[in-house]
Amino acid sequence: MRTVSATELARNFRAMLDSVEFKHEELVIIRNNHEVARIIPGPASMTALEAMADIFRTLPEDAGAGWLEDSRASDRILRNGVRDPWAT
């Protein structure tokens, strides 16, 4: 966490935002000797594949095998056709 004055932030705004974005620093803005704001890095972005890989890594070993079996079973069901719930 880095503490900067409001004046310093105004004079070096681009550099400060770059340090938040690229160095993942948190800035505490001080004005008149008290904290007025914090600037924190936004959430990291990731693709759906990266998100699924993160979820998969948290599962126990046997859960992955169960998931694979379940997904293959649902695939077989879907291949037989999906009924229209609004059909009379």
Give your account of this protein's structure.
The chain is α+β, with helices and mostly antiparallel strands and about 90 residues long. Helices cover about 55% and strands about 15% of the residues. The chain is built from 4 helices and 3 strands; from the N terminus they run βααββαα.
Concise summary:
The chain has helices at 6-11, 13-23, 48-58, 61-79; strands spanning 2-5, 27-31, 34-39.
Biggest beta sheet summary:
3 strands, mixed
What's the count of strands? 3
Shape by Cα distribution:
elongated
Overall tally of structural domains: 2
CATH topology of the largest domain: YefM-like fold
- Quote the average pLDDT: 87
Helix-strand makeup class:
alpha+beta
Task: Show the helix and strand layout.
Layout (H helix, E strand, L loop, with lengths): L1 E4 H6 L1 H11 L3 E5 L2 E6 L8 H11 L2 H19 L9
Parallel strand pairs: 1-2
Antiparallel strand pairs: 2-3
List keywords for this structure.
alpha+beta, 88 residues, YefM-like fold, 4 helices, three-stranded mixed β-sheet, single chain, 17% strand, 2 domains
